[in-house]
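so my prof wants the structure for this chain in the tokens format not the other one, which i didnt know existed until like an hour ago. anyway here's the sequence
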Amino acid sequence: MHKKLTISIDEKVYEGLYATIGEGKISQFIENLVKPHVIHQDLTLAYQEMALDEKREREADDWSEGVIGDVNDAER
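here's what i got, hopefully its the right format
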């Protein structure tokens, strides 16, 4: 369920949002920015859910394996 919220922001900020995000997408953009700061989820549950996503886990594994060689290339 969504609730309507009226906020006041600087005109230049609004114009930037409108130009960058686009008409009809500003509410979702702001919600995505604010949500992690006001809805505190159980991290254990979130990590368990992420681990169940096999495609995401494969991509993460491929990425980590791909960058492990970078450690040996670093100057000391």
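also thought this was worth mentioning. The two ends are 54 Å apart (CA to CA).
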